[in-house]
Amino acid sequence: MAVQDIFNAILAYDEATVKAQTQAELDGGTDIATILNEGLIAPMDVVGERFSAGDLFIPEMLKAAQIMKMGLEILKPHLTAGQSQSKGTVVIGTVKGDLHDIGKNLVAMMLEGAGFEVVDLGVDVTSEAFVKAATEKNARVIGLSALLTTTMPAMDNTVKAVKEAGLAAKTIVGGAPVTQAFADTIGADGYSADAAGAVKLVKQIVA
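The structure assignment produced for this chain is given below.
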């Protein structure tokens, strides 16, 4: 089964094979949903499991996610509305005052790989910007990242702003200094220590 070649190539970080094989499957008439789900999305679940088990680290995870996205870009023009049906929209960003983005980028890529539409607001994002984007995009989840202890209060402010705006979106938080206890203190709806956990958390929230 040639779609399995795409799956295996992502796990082997083989960019050339992923791109060539994705195109070959398209040209050969393979069902696009099969290429998407079994070739591109399925290996990212394995990557997440390996990361959680301590068998993979952030650089490998980023590499696999980036290669998966290259295959996804080839498929995108051919996806119909039904095949590309998003599982929901997630607005994500690093909070005001913080310019770190590696962890946030990883979570965003893995969420895309899991079939979510991701609106990445970047770094140094104000509470107002999170609320505005979540309102405009009808987001199910708002993901807040912070890598500095000094910017953690901005998470608190954003969670409050989301609640004050009356949004249905759930807030999740993460980043090196962030803990479950802190998430509970500020009233966030969820916390994850890593990208794989964040994807599982979002899946649970939108289920």
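Interim note for the steering committee: The two ends are 31 Å apart (CA to CA). The first helix runs from residue 3 to 11.
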